[in-house]
TrEMBL record:
Name the UniProt record assigns to this protein: Carbon-nitrogen hydrolase family protein
Molecular function in Gene Ontology: hydrolase activity
CDD domains in the cross-refs: nitrilase
Domain CN hydrolase residue range list: 1-238
Keywords in alphabetical order: Hydrolase
Matching Pfam families: CN_hydrolase
Length: 238
């Protein structure tokens, strides 16, 4: 099973530009035989912490923007895990959808949101990407061991972590090493492979060093993206 994690800045508030960049990345992945491609937290539309911005960026899965994107992804073989703020009724969730051949086969909503206005998810679904089963945790969930354990207990061999660690510069520096330490701890705790995709660079006064990596069940960092820039981690799981 070949996995890829894309370290990218989002095209905030520009769905068309975001869709173009996403399609280019997935075509790149498809050409290289990637089975599972992971993108950062709220990559579609951009992440935020304030309620007003979140409301403006949130999308409905049956809305025009998502339907148009799915049509464009119909020819992509790689399974994609895509983050977005999701309107569901009158609630907004910080979600990651799983897309295969232009179809949403399911999704996960962040169990421990640290953003305003976001409702917590309470389900830990498992997905198939032959020959492995995988689940999802999102960013702050990594600070809560039970979230990863729930995925492992459901039978996952791989946990995908969409991240968005664009933070004020002083906070980013304090967390620079702690992000990867959290993922190593979740791997050792669960005995699962851990794959993360983060945002990196500077945007809106925020800084992200990036914590895009693949960690083995023993806690070894098998591959990690370069700090502070767009990058991609590609690896074949044994």
């Amino acid at each position: 099973m070949r996995v890829a994690a894309f370290q990218r800045l989002p095209a905030c508030d520009d769905i068309d530009a975001g869709a173009e960049a996403l399609l280019a990345d997935l075509e790149w992945a498809d050409a290289r035989g990637v089975d599972l491609a992971l993108f950062p937290e709220a990559h579609l539309g951009g992440h935020a912490y304030l309620a007003a911005t979140i409301e403006s960026r949130a999308m409905r899965l049956d809305g025009e923007a998502v339907r148009h994107l799915l049509l464009r992804l119909a020819a992509i073989r790689s399974t994609a895990v895509l983050g977005l703020f999701e309107w569901r009724g009158e609630q907004i969730y910080n979600s990651a959808i799983v897309v295969q051949r232009g179809r949403i086969i399911g999704g996960y909503s962040k169990a421990h949101p640290n953003e305003e206005r976001i409702a917590p998810g309470n389900a830990f679904p498992i997905f198939e990407c032959a020959p492995r089963r995988f689940g999802i945790n999102i960013c702050n969930d990594a600070n809560h061991p039970h979230a990863a354990q729930a995925v492992a207990d459901a039978g996952a061999a791989l946990i995908c972590f969409p991240l968005n660690n664009l933070l004020p510069p002083d906070v980013a520096e304090r967390w620079r090493e702690r992000h990867i330490a959290n993922l190593v701890a979740r791997a050792r705790q669960t005995g699962c492979w851990i794959l993360s995709a983060d945002a990196a660079g500077e945007q809106g006064g925020l800084v992200g060093y990036g914590c895009t990596a693949l960690v083995s069940p023993d806690g070894d960092v098998v591959a990690q993206a370069r700090e502070g820039i767009d990058d991609v981690v590609v690896h074949d799981l044994p």
